[in-house]
Amino acid sequence: MTSENKQRESIRIRTQRATRCLFFLVLLFGISSLYAQKQNFVNFNVENGLAQSQTTVFAQNRNNELLIGTFGGLSVFDGSFFVNYNKSKGLPNNVITALATDRNKNTWIGTNDGIAFFNGQQFHTYYPSSKAGENVIRKIIVDRYNNVWTIVNDKLYRFSGSRFVRDTTIGTTLSITLDKSEKAWVVNPGKGIFVWNGQGWKKEIDLQHEPDLVIADMSFGAYSGTLYCNTSRGPLAVDKGQLRYPEFLKGLPANGFFNTMYEDRRGIIWLSLSDGGAWVYSNSKWIHYNYDNGLTDDNVTHFFEDAEGNIWIGTNGSGIFSYTGSLFTYYDRASGLASPSVMSMAQYKDGSIYLASSNAGLYRLGNNSNVEPVPIPAYASGVNSLQVDTFGRLWIGTQRAGLWYLDGRSTRPFVARNKVIPRNITYLYQYEGTLWISSVNGLYHLAGDSILYDPLPKAREIYATLMIGTDSMLLGTRKGVYLYRTDTRKLLPQPLLDNTTTLCLAADNRYVYIGTDDRGVVLWNRGTHQLSNIDQKRGLSCDYVYSLLRDKDGSIWVGTGCGIDKISFTDKGMKIRSFGKSDGLLGVENNANASFEDREGYLWFGTTRGLFRFNPYTSAAPEHAPRVVLQGVKLFSKDIPEQKYADSTLPFSDLPLHPVFPPSQNHLTFSFKGVFLSSPEKVRYRYQLMGADKTFTETNQNTVVYPNLPPGSYVFKVWASDAAGNWHSNVVSYPFIINAPYYTTWYFRLGIAFLLIGIFLAVVYYRNHQKELRRRWEDRLREEEQARVRQKTAEDFHDEIGNKLTRINLLATIATGKLPASSPEVKGILGQIQANVTSLYNGSKDIIWSLQPQSDYLEEIILRIRQNAEEMLQDSDIQFDFEQDTLSDTHIKLPIDYSRNMIMIFKEAITNSLKHGEATRIALKVSRQGELLVFELLDNGKGFDTSVTGKGNGLGNMNNRAKRIGGELSCDSVPGRGTLLRLLLKIY
């Protein structure tokens, strides 16, 4: 065995001996008395859902949830419910020995067989030691540098990112802890206590002079920052670099095994010894909490303070306990009450508190807080009400035995001189020396040594009375609230409040407060006589009100069937604070008129589960914002299939991240939780679905359903309030999209629009095409008809005019032949007739040609112009040239009147050139320039001045004819250089 192993074995033996030895402390004078009253310890065990009742360690994750290590696995507590993990769910072992959380919200779980890493969805196990059976984890911490440290078999390990690597710079390590700045501290026996500075270990406390001292555990005080050590010599504290016994241990009135010690953020010391329960050092005195005052007699294994200031106590067999402070203390059967149901309280002249029970008589609570029964006959043990009059006498109102009083320490019946005995007394009320007695049978009052009955036929079954003036009394009855004039002893016929059972009354300068069984607290304005109410909808625990109490600060305390509410009025309005189980108020159902304020300002409340005292001088813990967690999103009330609507999930959750749902998947259910360990039942929520809700909705439910959501982009938001009703910026947002049906998308609508436009255009095109086809058909018919007409006209014109002209010409020729030679004038006339007839005949041929259908084609027109030119110039010395350029297709049909006008234009131009131009050459050129057809007639004659208009109409007629057919005619002539006539016609 190596020297290091020998040293480790020696240390282990000494540690075992230290844990078996008795830790002896000197008993000093000033031992604190044990209180009979109970503190507000709230127990959670396997019946509530805890994995196992033997707990070992606590931690808290980033969701504010409490992590509890047990012998049966890990429990995660959100303030209301437990979720448990054990070996069957991924843990390497069910015995949990250490817990820690890192900055990435991961949980590190130490067990008796390795370390489980939990990322919220799955476990992964690490074994620091390679030796089987040597992976019992003692402790795990995560320091400020996010280093994960653990101790296994007295060896220190650090997580490297993929595995745990041993740190050999320290050697044997027995304990590790974190200081207030989250720096890691370790202890090496015989060497010292070291701190990690981010680069290495630095010795802070030298232990070389303490070779036999074994430090089994260490912790830093949350308030003082003092380092406490659990050692083989008992608990020690570091003071100026030296280990010394803490001063507060000198007054500890007990001895036994020392288990653990803890200092919370208020500086209170929590100590666990082998005698069970917990020892608490506060205000320079020790108090032992065990079963008698609300805790347990089992050994306490661990203390832990959560982020809200609650103290959690782990036990070896009783589960866990939470302690939220000393706002409420209580008395029950364990305190000495035979019956826990307390009906009334009153403070006697000696300062003691007397308690009334409906079936167990009378009790006295002395200055030492011990409960003592007060003797009273069995037939008078049903006490409903207590009252101390102005003379200090305690009056006792019973159910069956009438009115009693306290004489010293003895109870006596009050025997009225007039022998009147009020039965079924419900409430005693004292005002200016007069004791008023309410009962099921009506109203009585004490006058001297007599009891007088006030006959009130309409006001029977009276449960509460209250004077609101020197002569006006309000009566709370089963049927409502009535006003009774004590001076005239008459009841006003009209009730102040009708048809509601009234059990309690209170008043201030502005309002009368009326406790009802169905409408909460009704407020009657003393000035305007208007009624309003404060009910469950406005924040009251419930609408069944049993007691009302106005304290010295003006606040109204409301005892209901569901808890106790405090109504405060400030400049900002009304504020309601509810108290329940988390505040130590175990009995939530109050008794009728069972509340009062003692001389010291403490408030007392009688419930069906015992007597509760509220301490107004205890400073309430600062309110913390609950951590809002989105627990579930369901689709049509079913879990969403994994990765069906999203590629990934939220961290530490199986909820889809930024899901996109199809149009039909639009029924969503959201469940959420405001994790608030102090007062989970007081958490209220505000939620809003951005994209659907115009404003938020406030509720105390943690589930909301959105059915039949339309397509769109949404963000679900939820907030949670603290116990005082304050709202914080603790919103959780969950975005998602519901896709629109394809027929509602913009691209589909755009496509439909284009389709409709296309259909419309197609229909328009079709109709226009049909119209065009019809027009063409009609034009064709018209043209065919016109062609027939033109052909027939041409034939008729040719037959009639041609024959007649031929006959005239023939007759003129015959006449010329028969004339004698002596008639030259007549022959000249006949020659002119023949010439004119010939000219007319030649002109008629153009007219006849233009009437024929084939004359509409461009090729025919060009041919005709060419033929006319050749015919007109054949008897002259003028040379005629024709050129046709860049015309590939001349079979183009032109409108009906084009041919006639074009023939006449060029016929007139050739005639002018022939008569006046003195040309020797005339050229006709036909060409194409883009969409224009160009006719050019050029001669080499003498030309003329175009600025001088002649007397004839030839050029003007040609321009008119060109305009008729949409052409452009130009004449370019210079004297001595010939003439160029150009016709531009758009036909392509």
TrEMBL record:
Could you tell me one molecular function GO term of this UniProt entry?
phosphorelay sensor kinase activity
Ordered alphabetically, the record's keywords are: Kinase, Membrane, Transferase, Transmembrane, Transmembrane helix, Two-component regulatory system
Supply the name of the protein: Two component regulator with propeller domain
Pfam hit, one: Y_Y_Y
Coiled coil located at which positions?
Answer: none
- Look up and give the organism this protein is from: Taibaiella chishuiensis
Cite the Histidine kinase domain residue spans from the record.
796-988
Q: Which domain of life is it from?
A: Bacteria
An annotated GO cellular component of this protein is: membrane
Give a yes or no for keyword Glycosyltransferase in this entry: no
What InterPro entries does the annotation carry? HATPase_C_sf, HATPase_dom, His_kinase_dom, Ig-like_fold, Reg_prop, Sensor_HK_TwoCompSys, Sig_transdc_His_kin_sub3_dim/P, WD40/YVTN_repeat-like_dom_sf
Q: Which residues cross the membrane?
A: 746-766
